[in-house]
From TrEMBL:
One of its GO terms (molecular function) is DNA-binding transcription factor activity. PROSITE patterns: HTH_CRP_2. This is Crp/Fnr family transcriptional regulator. Residues 147-213 form the HTH crp-type domain. One of its GO terms (cellular component) is cytosol. Keywords: DNA-binding, Transcription, Transcription regulation. The keyword Repeat does not apply.
Length: 240
């Protein structure tokens, strides 16, 4: 798959439900606007809502200290924010930060819990999504340790492009450095390398993806692995 996973203003998890379950879930959701930089929850916060992004996307960040942060997952129209709720927990384990402004569907925790109890299809689908997310989290740990910054940056830009549904991205070096857990100088060198190969154009925080196929080749295999895993476990799965 060479194009972004989903079109704007849809959420693939909700769209994957049987018609009756989908209608029921949508009836209890409200559409909210998420502004860039909004903190939805801090580690240890009580979760108030489940979010299903439409054309917005959210970074899940682990904090080791005020200066040591690393993005460990990204949630867009392919997923949901509030995974602990599937396990019967309402505590946020990570910082949830809006990285791409836009809209999302939001459902109160109590209502979400009732839907989980009443819909075996929703439970089965979200269990599959939890499996995918767990696999991706372990992959991020290995990727951060073993893969070069240039390949990781290419992967991260592709992930962002998929969720932004656009070739135009606005990402400063400071923000990218925080997301990838490297120094700003490392991001500068990696971005220059990708630009010199004609894969992106970068100027003052504005990044344009010029060659998506080339960017996929430049990225580590983790990007294609994640896409393939999601497709196999979620997109091609038969939800009961």
């Amino acid at each position: 798959m060479n194009s972004p996973i989903h079109s704007p203003l849809t959420n693939h998890l909700i769209d994957s439900l049987p018609h009756r379950d989908r209608v029921s879930v949508l009836a209890d959701c409200e559409t909210v606007d998420l502004a860039f930089g909004k903190v939805i929850s801090e580690p240890g916060d009580q979760i108030q809502h489940a979010y299903f992004p439409l054309d917005s996307f959210i970074s899940l960040i682990t904090n080791l200290s005020d200066t040591e942060r690393l993005e460990v997952a990204m949630v867009g129209s392919e997923g949901m924010l509030g995974i602990p709720l599937i396990l019967g927990l309402d505590e946020s384990p990570l910082l949830a930060l809006v990285q791409g402004e836009g809209t999302a569907l939001r459902m109160p925790v109590a209502v979400f819990g009732r839907h989980l109890e009443q819909s075996s299809a929703l439970q089965a689908l979200l269990n599959r999504y939890l499996y995918v997310l767990m696999h991706q989290l372990t992959r991020v740990a290995a990727c951060t340790h073993f893969h070069q910054v240039e390949a990781r940056l290419a992967r991260w830009l592709l992930m962002t492009q998929d969720r932004a549904h656009s070739d135009q991205l606005h990402l400063t070096h400071e923000f990218l450095a925080m997301m990838l857990g490297v120094r700003r100088a490392g991001i500068t060198l990696a971005a220059m390398a990708l630009q010199s190969r004609g894969l992106i154009r970068y100027h003052r925080g504005d990044i344009t993806v010029l060659d998506r196929e080339g960017l996929i080749e430049a990225s580590c295999g983790c990007y294609s692995f994640d896409r393939g895993l999601y497709r196999r476990i979620i997109t091609e799965a038969d939800v009961p």
